[in-house]
């Protein structure tokens, strides 16, 4: 079984090989994905990940946590609905006294009921916009939820609450969310509903006011609705809730404390505005101009009929819009739809009245939209309607625009523009279509299933390249296709059996491609693909069982043998497929079969609460404890999940170990208590469950109930003698658990029962620590009154005082101090409570601690002293308080050294002044900058520099990043500080590190004023530096013209100095495009042809960077136009590479040699072709360039073809290029149809080969370009072309062909596969194989990799091609190369269907040769138990000795397949001693 892949660990690939010709991503080779390191997101906050295709992905941990907690984002839905509201409508709601009272209240719920179509959703969007605009302050929040019956699977209560949290959270997701993420990520679990609710409540508590608006609660399933509303009721005491729904749902059954009701209906004025708005943008406006009275009549008729329903008004207006004349409109006013049902019926009549094509499109659209398992995207619907059942590829000419689709649906379908999702116009439309489904759309599920299965079985699908990084480029329907089996289950199974079985055979391949990376937005995550422990390989039977394809599973079982270890019964039980379970048991399924991770069918059925299946399984098995040795028992999981009836049944059937431990909860009782299942707790206690059994996550059942807040269960357990002071579990004690979770009622119960308040242990150390950490002040007070020890140490912070100080809870700190808390007790992290208060910036608490005698000079902790912490945080008031209490200003801390260094680094002038007044040492050595003065100077703190100099700071001290104080200030451009230092006598020529001298630092950074000051102070202009050498080089490199002039004035004379990146000053200036400096250097005698550096010469540098004016200057000054060397080889090649046509012409006009071929870029023409610069190619061709026929990359034509530059191909051919041999192969491999056509008009030899392929036909066949294969065959391409050396081997009669290892065959001067037929067979291109056979391809022709095409197709698992080749006379028993025979190839690869076909066609079951010696040994070695069984039944010689492992038994033994070993021994295999050994 395969392990889970962590969706938030990025696997960074190593260096990939060259991209395949058919791969648009350009990723290939074995290096690509999967070879690099892993980056776990909890290790980083933000990152930029470079993608293999050259792009970048910005990654932020915050976004990852948000998406993990809630992938639901309602912001776009809100924006889209807001656009639907007619301006001026809905304002009555904002003015309604009930709404205004709710808006101004705190913790009230507004229950808004309204009839269908009353505009509730649009009003909700208006309220959200209104509140969001009114309460813009950051401490207030507005969040919304739009429920949709189509999205129930994704809109779980947990995700919805998380979605609300997502809308309310700020930039910082908070420690609680980060903790949840880290905790669950390690375990591979999702947060519970309780945890998400606590997270939301925690965030609401941080805001001053919160409004939560929920729309369409009536569309939410009743069972989940109750759960969601109960949690909302709990939240409602801290936030204002507004809930819209239909009138039939009452609020009485829910526990909302303060609730107001409001009836929602479309007001007459809103209907009037809506009608006028709709008329304005329709043809009705023209009719009204003809007869103004018509507008009054429309208002009267519609307003009087709609009864507060916008939706009915919409349909009535739609009905009127269809009328073409004034008379028709007037007549239609008397026939308006009476209600929504009537409106939908008329809409269908309008559809039926359309042309046959439009009617077909409309009905197909309604079928898809109404029956989709989730809302379809626009592109998904377009592809779905374009797919033609029975075809093998998607016809790009069969697509409709979404506008065309919607236009024929009579207003029943709409598009969500923001989300690009297609929906029915209203929930009532879904209900109407469901009602008429049997009459109007009886084949809906079959039609959808057929379309999806056709799409999934298209030729070339799935494409392996889809598993690359470009996960968002999958064909649009791939994501929705995961529901194909949900649509196929039932009657469609029989009608679609053939194509359904074909897909089931390919499903494993689909899963590997689509779910290669869970970051893929289209990955399959619905049943059956979301089974938590999916098999290593998806078999057809397993998928059928998981998807409830009863007819299909039965058909497969009737055709194939049943194996005792098949686990289909388990997956069917997991999904609750009762009929499937019954059928499988009837076919002999082993009721006690165990899965590796999930135990037995009984256990998984119990876990899912599938009562009926549990009954069926119990009837078939007398042992309910099977599988409990390694797995959670059925009884345990049923008790934890609260399935009372199942618990009762299992106990009756003999699940007697009621106190069994060894799982998450330690005991059945603890599991039931942790989930609040009161009835099961009572049942277990009645059956003798030990109330004090210990173990598991919570230690005891009592702690579990206390931690989760189930007061009734706590009471029951205490009455049954539960030990109230037992230690253990996550919280240490029961009392600590109740306190940590804030369950005050349970806390009081436990105190009354004598709980010990001073027991130590658990997550927080003591109960007092837990209460303080959670800020339960009343509980803190009660604990102190009960004698809780205030000075006992906890875990993270030490004492309770430190915890209270860290949280800034002044009231709690005061209580603890009054009870004698030690103000100077050692802290864990910060050394003392005082340092904690200082670090957190709690000024009032600092004052309280100092009044209680806190020692200001205690050292240690993160900052060393409290004073250093205060300075580091910039807390001026606290610094003043500490200094007044005698804090030592010269003591050294840990991170920064002295407090003065910290203050200087922070640039806090006021604090520096205070410290200097208290005698801080100004010349103490620093850590980063060596001296305080150097630090202040480097950071530009002018005032502080002045203060330090006044206090006697040394200006010439050396060390730190720049070594020299003056150099640091010069590099940073701090002019005033440089002036101050020079004024204090700083040495202008003192040497440093980064730039050697201050002058070079100033020059490199372009600080002209500082350069001038240093030169005036005698700075040496000719001192050699590091990166740039001289000052002049630095100035030139940075383009500082004025500084260059100053340096020349001061005696910088060597203009031809070499030895840096650009080789010379002139080349540097030319590369930078600084015309003025280039001219200045030439005036000063710079050598225009000096060579060296990146570009070789200044001319090539100017050309490469596209500086036309400088090119002209250099040429005018005698630059050598054909100088070789540098990055591009010559100036002309540089121009060709960059496509600079103006410069190219300039160089050619000045006699540049266009035929020079030295250097990396070969010739100028080749360079221009390779870069796709059409105009540059044209210019060069006009100069009569000679073509390159020798070079490594091939001819110019080959380069153009390989990149698909069709226009350049035509230009080269017209210019006389005739080296087409590799070009035709390249075009065929790349799929460039038009280029192939052009080349064929020029190329006399269609069968000429290239470097990779032996012929163009082979190239096209391998790459799957059907159209090109067709073109080549029409041009009489030879389908039998093979590599010459292989032909020589065959003709010469050599007998050692099988000895040529495929991996060592690179020396053979042949194509990749030796023949187009084998190439197509290996790559699985069925249509091309058929075409080649029709044109006479030798079905038994030999190739390199597999020998013959049949063996190739068998090894690669292409069932359809195998059948095709056999039908055309392929030798089923031909013995060839690596696998010996086709049967051995299929057996080794595990292709059971192909093995069956070959055997039916007479394949020799004992054929020898090849890697494994026999098919049986191949299947045994690779662990294919089903195929081993098939071969044995066909009479395979079980004891034949041959092949890599000697025998089938030895192969299975060595490769570790014990089940196959047992099977072989049962069949009478000799060699039991080998197994014993």
From TrEMBL:
Pfam families: Ank, Ank_2, NPHP3_N, WHD_GPIID. The keyword Repeat applies. Residues 356-434 form the GPI inositol-deacylase winged helix domain. Keywords: ANK repeat, Repeat. Residues 13-32 have a biased composition (Gly residues). Residues 11-32 are annotated as: Disordered. Residues 88-241 form the Nephrocystin 3-like N-terminal domain. ANK repeats lie at residues 564-596, 597-629, 664-696, 697-729, 730-762, 763-795, 796-828, 829-861, 862-894, 895-927, 928-960, 961-993, 994-1026, 1061-1093, 1094-1126, 1127-1159, 1252-1284, 1312-1344, 1350-1377, 1378-1410, 1411-1443. PROSITE patterns: ANK_REP_REGION, ANK_REPEAT. This is NACHT and ankyrin domain protein. It comes from Mycena sanguinolenta.
């Amino acid at each position: 079984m395969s392990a889970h892949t962590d969706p938030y660990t990025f696997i960074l690939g190593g260096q990939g090989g060259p991209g395949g010709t058919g791969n648009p991503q350009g990723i290939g080779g074995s290096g690509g994905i999967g070879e690099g390191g892993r980056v776990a997101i909890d290790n980083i906050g933000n990152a930029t990940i470079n993608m293999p295709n050259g792009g970048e992905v910005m990654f932020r941990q915050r976004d990852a946590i948000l998406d993990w907690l809630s992938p639901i984002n309602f912001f776009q839905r809100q924006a889209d609905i807001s656009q639907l509201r007619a301006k001026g409508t809905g304002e009555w709601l904002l003015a309604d006294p009930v709404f205004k009272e709710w808006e101004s209240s705190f913790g009230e719920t507004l229950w808004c009921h309204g009839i269908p179509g009353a505009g509730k959703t649009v009003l909700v969007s208006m309220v959200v916009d209104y509140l969001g605009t009114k309460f813009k302050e950051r401490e207030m929040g507005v969040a919304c939820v739009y429920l949709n019956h189509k999205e129930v699977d994704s809109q779980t209560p947990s995700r919805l609450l998380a979605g609300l949290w997502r809308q309310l959270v700020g930039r910082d997701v908070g420690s609680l969310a980060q903790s949840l993420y880290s905790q669950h990520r390690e375990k591979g679990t999702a947060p519970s509903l309780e945890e998400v609710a606590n997270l939301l409540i925690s965030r609401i508590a941080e805001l001053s006011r919160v409004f939560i608006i929920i729309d369409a609660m009536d569309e939410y399933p009743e069972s989940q609705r109750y759960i969601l509303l109960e949690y909302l009721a709990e939240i409602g005491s801290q936030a204002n809730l507004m809930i819209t729904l239909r009138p039939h749902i009452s609020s009485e059954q829910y526990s909302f404390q303060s609730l107001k009701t409001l009836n929602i209906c479309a007001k007459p004025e809103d209907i009037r505005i809506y009608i006028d708005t709709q008329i304005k943008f329709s043809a009705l406006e023209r009719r009204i101009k003809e007869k103004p009275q018509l507008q009054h009549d429309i208002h009267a008729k519609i307003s009087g009929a709609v009864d507060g329903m916008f939706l009915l008004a919409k349909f009535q207006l739609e009905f009127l819009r269809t009328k073409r004349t004034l008379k028709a409109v007037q007549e239609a006013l008397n026939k308006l739809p009476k209600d929504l049902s009537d409106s939908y019926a008329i809409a269908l009549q309008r559809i039926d009245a359309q042309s046959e094509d439009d009617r077909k499109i409309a009905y197909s659209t309604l079928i898809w939209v109404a029956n989709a398992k989730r809302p379809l995207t626009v592109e998904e619907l377009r592809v779905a309607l374009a797919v033609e059942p029975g075809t093998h590829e998607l016809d790009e000419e069969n697509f409709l625009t979404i506008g065309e689709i919607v236009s024929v649906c009579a207003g029943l379908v709409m598009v969500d523009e923001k989300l690009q999702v297609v929906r029915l116009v209203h929930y009532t439309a879904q209900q109407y279509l469901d009602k008429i489904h049997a009459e109007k759309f009886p084949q809906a599920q079959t039609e959808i299933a057929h379309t999806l299965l056709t799409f999934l079985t298209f030729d070339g699908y799935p494409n392996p390249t889809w598993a690359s990084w470009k996960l968002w480029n999958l064909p649009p329907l791939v994501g929705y296709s995961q529901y194909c089996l949900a649509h196929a289950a039932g009657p469609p199974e029989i009608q679609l059996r053939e194509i359904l079985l074909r897909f089931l055979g390919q499903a494993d391949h689909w899963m590997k491609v689509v779910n290669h990376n869970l970051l893929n937005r289209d990955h399959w995550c619905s049943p059956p693909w979301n089974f938590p422990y999916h098999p290593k390989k998806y078999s057809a039977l397993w998928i059928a069982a998981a998807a409830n394809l009863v007819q299909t599973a039965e058909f497969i079982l009737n055709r194939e043998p049943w194996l005792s270890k098949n686990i289909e019964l388990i997956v069917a039980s997991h999904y609750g497929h009762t009929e499937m379970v019954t059928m499988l048991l009837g076919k002999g399924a082993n009721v006690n079969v165990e899965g590796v991770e999930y135990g037995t069918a009984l256990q998984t059925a119990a876990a899912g609460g599938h009562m009926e299946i549990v009954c069926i399984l119990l009837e078939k098995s007398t042992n309910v404890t099977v599988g409990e040795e390694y797995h959670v028992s059925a009884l345990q999981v049923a008790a934890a999940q609260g399935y009372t009836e199942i618990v009762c049944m299992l106990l009756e059937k003999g699940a007697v170990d009621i106190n069994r431990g060894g799982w998450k909860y330690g005991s059945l009782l603890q599991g039931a208590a942790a989930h609040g299942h009161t009835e099961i707790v009572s049942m277990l206690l009645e059956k003798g469950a030990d109330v004090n059994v210990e173990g598991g996550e919570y230690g005891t059942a009592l702690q579990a109930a206390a931690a989760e807040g189930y007061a009734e269960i706590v009471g029951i357990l205490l009455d049954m003698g539960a030990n109230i002071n037992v230690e253990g579990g996550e919280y240490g004690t029961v009392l600590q658990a109740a306190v940590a979770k804030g369950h005050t009622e349970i806390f009081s119960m436990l105190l009354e029962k004598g709980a010990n308040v001073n027991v130590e242990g658990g997550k927080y150390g003591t109960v007092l620590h837990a209460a303080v950490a959670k800020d339960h002040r009343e509980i803190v007070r009660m604990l102190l009154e009960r004698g809780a020890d205030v000075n006992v140490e906890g875990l993270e912070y030490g004492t309770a005082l430190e915890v209270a100080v860290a949280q800034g809870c002044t009231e709690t700190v005061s209580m603890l101090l009054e009870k004698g808390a030690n103000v100077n007790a050692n802290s864990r992290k910060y050394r003392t409570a005082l340092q904690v208060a200082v670090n957190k910036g709690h000024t009032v608490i600092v004052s309280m601690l100092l009044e209680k005698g806190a020692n200001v000079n205690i050292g240690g902790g993160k900052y060393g002293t409290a004073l250093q912490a205060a300075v580091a945080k910039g807390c001026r008031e606290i610094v003043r308080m500490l200094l007044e209490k005698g804090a030592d200003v010269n003591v050294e801390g840990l991170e920064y050294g002295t407090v003065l260094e910290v203050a200087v680094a922070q640039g806090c002038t006021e604090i520096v002044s205070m410290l200097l007044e208290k005698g801080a040492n100004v010349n103490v050595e620093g850590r980063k900058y060596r001296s305080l003065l150097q630090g202040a100077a480097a950071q530009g703190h002018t005032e502080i520099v002045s203060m330090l100099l006044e206090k006697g700071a040394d200006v010439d001290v050396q060390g730190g990043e720049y070594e020299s104080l003056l150099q640091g200030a010069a590099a940073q451009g701090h002019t005033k500080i440089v002036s101050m230092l020079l004024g204090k006598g700083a040495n202008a020529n003192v040497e440093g590190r980064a730039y050697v001298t201050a002058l070079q630092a100033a020059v490199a950074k372009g600080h002209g004023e500082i350069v001038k000051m240093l030169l005036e102070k005698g700075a040496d202009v000719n001192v050699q530096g590091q990166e740039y050498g001289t000052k002049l080089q630095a100035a030139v490199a940075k383009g500082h013209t004025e500084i260059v002039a100053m340096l020349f004035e001061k005696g910088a004379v060597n203009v031809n100095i070499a030895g840096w990146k650009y080789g010379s000053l002139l080349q540097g200036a030319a590369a930078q495009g600084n015309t003025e400096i280039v001219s200045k250097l030439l005036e000063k005698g710079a050598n225009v042809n000096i060579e060296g550096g990146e570009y070789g010469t200044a001319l090539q540098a100017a050309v490469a960077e596209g500086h036309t004016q400088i090119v002209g200057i250099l040429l005018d000054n005698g630059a050598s136009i054909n100088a070789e060397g540098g990055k591009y080889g010559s100036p002309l090649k540089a121009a060709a590479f960059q496509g600079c046509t103006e410069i190219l012409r300039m160089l050619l006009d000045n006699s540049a040699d266009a035929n020079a071929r030295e250097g990396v870029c070969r010739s100028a023409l080749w360079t221009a072709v390779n870069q796709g610069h059409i105009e540059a190619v044209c210019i060069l061709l006009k100069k009569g360039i000679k073509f390159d026929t020798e070079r490594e990359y091939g001819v110019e034509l080959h380069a153009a073809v390989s990149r698909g530059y069709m226009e350049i191909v035509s230009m080269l051919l017209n210019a006389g290029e005739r080296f087409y041999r590799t070009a035709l192969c390249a075009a065929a491999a790349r799929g460039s149809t038009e280029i192939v056509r052009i080349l064929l008009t020029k190329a006399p030899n269609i069968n000429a080969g290239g470097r990779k392929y032996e012929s163009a036909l082979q190239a096209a066949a391998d790459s799957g370009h059907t159209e090109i294969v067709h073109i080549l065959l029409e041009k009489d391409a030879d389908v039998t072309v093979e590599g010459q050396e292989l032909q020589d081997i065959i003709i010469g009669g050599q007998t050692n062909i099988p000895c040529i290892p495929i991996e060592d065959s690179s020396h053979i001067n042949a194509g990749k596969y030796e023949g187009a037929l084998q190439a197509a067979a290996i790559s699985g291109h069925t249509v091309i194989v058929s075409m080649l056979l029709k044109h006479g391809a030798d079905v038994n022709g030999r190739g390199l990799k597999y020998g013959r095409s049949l063996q190739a197709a068998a090894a690669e698992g292409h069932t359809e091609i195998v059948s095709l080749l056999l039908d055309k006379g392929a030798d089923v028993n031909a013995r060839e190369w690596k696998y010996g025979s086709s049967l051995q190839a299929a057996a080794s690869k595990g292709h059971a269907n192909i093995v069956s076909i070959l055997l039916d066609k007479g394949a020799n079951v004992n054929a020898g040769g090849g890697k494994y010696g026999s098919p049986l040994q191949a299947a045994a070695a690779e662990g294919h138990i089903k195929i081993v069984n098939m071969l044995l039944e066909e009479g395979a010689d079980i004891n034949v000795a041959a092949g890599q492992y000697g025998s089938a038994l030895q192969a299975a033994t060595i490769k570790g397949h014990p089940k196959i070993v047992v099977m072989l021994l049962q069949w009478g295999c000799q060699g039991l001693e080998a197994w014993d050994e």
